[in-house]
Design a protein that fits this description.
Number of strands: 12
Shape: elongated
CATH superfamily of the largest domain: Bira Bifunctional Protein, Domain 2
Largest sheet: 8 strands, mixed
Structural class: alpha+beta
Distance between the termini: 85 Å
CATH architecture of the largest domain: 2-Layer Sandwich
Number of helices: 12
CATH topology of the largest domain: BirA Bifunctional Protein, domain 2
Oligomer: single chain
CATH class of the largest domain: Alpha Beta
């Protein structure tokens, strides 16, 4: 006996272990395994011959063969792990990508018009000193309605076409926010005045046609300080419209309106004209409404914990999808959300186009 193996098995073990060690790859290792343990393998043949031995000899021989099989199996596993790691390293070296190469034209992605317009709006208002604020898409009744001077019986609630969710554990009603104005309330509650923020994001209303979608995008703006007045509001929004539509001689007018959360309230129109079936911004004698605005109602400031005798300011809101349609000539709002790559290739923007006031918004 040698290491628990009959003397005639020592040479076989040496041979089989040498074959395992000599395997240069996984295919070679598999050949060594089959030669030893396959149906016609050398060790398998010896196991089949156990039936020709007497009981005592068969027991001793079987023990020796099983020990050899275990040692061979351990050697195969260790070699397989080593060769597998080497194969992965070789594949990684062979298939590595040179990221300094130019992007293939067929793989170029496109930025969605809504994302690009959000970047445009952000660039304009950031230049005026506005910061970006965010809030949850699922809101409670207080932040979405009550704090914005829209009590339970107010008719504006019916106009919102609200998606109502199940009441929470405390019995409070949850809704999918109908505007991003709740972000203004949350920001005022969490920070001390003065404020100067915009709040872009998704909003939800139960409506769908070529100019309405159950989910769309809005941006709200808020500026609160001790001496802000309507003139600041008009100047801010005029500068925004001129920069966004990139029309220096843009005609603008403000019409009296009514919103529960502002007083006085107004709607802002821009000059336009229809020529040959095409809308032209800044020309002609027609007007087009683009946003609502006004001075923040004192009740809104009070609900947010801000003293209206010390602070005042303005707010505004507009549909991002709508002004994207106006600027880039997109006729149907529903196409924004249909995931049509052909549409995106036509209306989308290069991933490298970063809007800025210095270099131009729509490159």
């Amino acid at each position: 006996m040698a290491n628990g193996v009959d003397g005639d098995l020592v040479g076989l073990e040496t041979e089989l272990m040498a074959a395992v060690a000599a395997a240069a790859d996984l295919d070679g290792l598999e050949e060594a395994r089959v030669a030893a343990l396959g149906r016609k393998g050398k060790l398998t043949a010896l196991m089949r011959g156990l039936g020709e031995l007497g009981a005592d000899a068969r027991k001793a021989r079987a023990t020796a063969l099983n020990l050899l099989k275990d040692r061979l199996g351990a050697a195969l596993d260790a070699k397989k792990e080593t060769l597998g790691a080497a194969a992965i390293e070789a594949r990684l070296a062979r298939e590595r990508i040179d990221v300094t190469l130019p992007v293939r034209p067929e793989s170029a992605g496109r930025i969605h018009p809504v994302s690009h317009v959000v970047d445009e709006i952000t660039a304009i208002f950031a230049d005026m000193g506005f910061a970006i604020a965010e809030g949850p898409d699922i809101e409670d009744d207080f932040h979405n309605f009550e704090a914005l001077n829209i009590p339970a019986e107010h008719p504006a609630r019916q106009m919102m076409d609200t998606f109502y969710l199940r009441d929470d554990a405390s019995g409070g009603r949850k809704v999918l926010r109908t505007h991003t104005s709740p972000v203004q309330i949350r920001h005022m509650q969490a920070h001390q005045p003065p404020y100067r923020i915009i709040a872009p994001g998704r909003v939800y209303r139960c409506d769908s046609d070529m100019t309405h979608s159950p989910m769309f995008h809005q941006v709200e703006g808020l500026a609160i300080d001790r001496a802000i007045h309507m003139g600041h509001l008009k100047g801010c929004l005029f500068e925004f419209a001129r920069s966004y539509f990139e029309v220096d001689r843009l005609r603008v007018r403000f019409r009296p309106s009514h919103f529960p959360f502002t007083e006085p309230s107004a709607e802002m129109d821009i000059g336009c004209a229809w020529k040959d079936g095409e809308l032209r911004i800044g020309e002609g004698d027609d007007w087009l409404e683009i946003l609502g605005c006004g001075m923040v109602h004192p009740k809104v400031l009070t609900a947010a914990g801000v003293d209206p005798t010390q602070w005042q300011g303005f707010a505004f809101g507009m549909g991002i999808d709508r002004i994207a349609m106006l600027k880039y000539g997109i006729p149907d709002l529903r196409a924004f959300f249909e995931s049509d790559l052909r549409w995106l290739r036509h209306y989308g923007f290069s991933a490298l186009d970063q809007p800025s006031l210095a270099e131009g918004l729509a490159l």
